[in-house]
Amino acid sequence: MFLxxxxxxxxxxxxxxxxxxxxxxxxxxxxxFMAVYWAAILLFLGVTLPALFEGVVPNMEPYxxxxxxxxxxMFADFLIRFMGQPAVAQELKPxxxxxxxxxxLIDTFLIQSGLSGFNFIWFFTYVPFAxxxxxxxxxxxxxxxxxxxxxxxxVLNNYWYLLCKMLMSEKTIWYLLPVAVYGAxxxxxxxxxxxxxxxxxxxxxxGFIEGNPLSFLFVLAIIVALFVLNREIQKKLLYDEISxxxxxxxxxxxEYKFLDKYGDVGEYIRLELKLIARNKTVKAQFRMAFIIMxxxxxxxxxxxxxxxxxMIAFLCAYNYLLLPIMxxxxxxxxxxxxxxxxxxxxxxxxxxxxxKYYLTTLIIVFPLFFMLFxxxxxxxxxxxxxxxxxxxxxVVFFLLLQLAxxxxxxxxxxxxxxxxxxxxxxxxxxxxxxxxxxxxxxxxLFTTLFSETVAYTLLTVIGLAFIxxxxxxxKNIYNRFMKRRYENMEAFRASR
Length: 496
Prior knowledge:
By secondary structure, the chain is mostly helical. It has helices at 2-17, 25-56, 62-68, 70-84, 88-92, 102-114, 123-133, 135-170, 176-191, 196-210, 213-242, 263-278, 280-302, 311-327, 339-343, 348-363, 365-376, 382-401, 403-406, 417-421, 426-449, 452-468, 470-483, 485-494.
């Protein structure tokens, strides 16, 4: 416990001593605002879901329906953790040289992770939901026991995420582990009679409410097993990392010769492809994006959780936004490492921006493919999927490429994902908020004023207009960049 308190104190001091602590106040305000915004959404769900469940399934208690969806909530929680929760290994590194036993250090960080506020995020939904549905039958005692059980489930999910994250960071093949587990659960749920997984989670939730010790012991046993597994694997990987010898063997890298015929733009596309292939951070971001896209597409396609809600539009838009935000959201940040070389060539920035636009346009085909599953299941129309694609390539890309003018912080080529996330500027936060918000706002506005067909047709037309004029507005971005080139170059050098 003493070590736990010391580490918590050191983490708070490190955050305060960070040079960015007193800078970029608006960006921090925007982050806090988004946190409050999502808390409000979760709270709204917790308040409205009881009445919604009673209206849809009047012969079942709302908490039974909610408990049937444990698996879907935990899967969504698992995906969300990839975007915001650091792995234990990242937090361990600053303390490896301290005179503390490695086992004790690993245990402390694992306990810290289990007690993290990240495991209470969903309480914004479950607390009001339990208050409105459980308390009238089981009193405060039943509600309290239920919330303890819910917390234990998310602690379990926390250690499951840490295990997957740790293994996936070592070898790509371990990405098959969560795919296999969730695939097996999905097959058991939808291929077997009677939805056995939903029935099991419903009974588990009922056990929490009634205070059944077997329910708590079952979850606790899995938590302990995952904790021990995390500790042992973490210990092994830690010592492997310390004793690792750097590989100096020459590796073959494709030259992408088919791009030769596209001139300077093809050359910059080649550089972008090599950046993706060689950079560990970028590859990890892409893998993470693909996992999230597949997860969200499957949730929309094969579940009824978000039917009839605006969440389907949000998930559709978000699927298209993930990859562009990772590629265009950090435009010029990696290039800050060699900005002087880029500026020595005529119109290199202009060709680089065009290359990023064309490459990201090709990449955006992947989320379209994943969205075909909801289209096939009849959850969304093909016109909706196509409209969001065109709008993203046109309007969203237009917004994100504006960051080429305002991004002035160099991101090291060997940086971690967590470090890359800390380079956000005020302009970056505003533009990304607009990129995520405008498609949903226009969709809501158009569907309110017109039919869905007209609304998605309008989104398509707006997107096509921006696509048709992309050379014009990319040139405008380039000209604005050149006007502030000396200021930006100085900022890039200072932030290396």
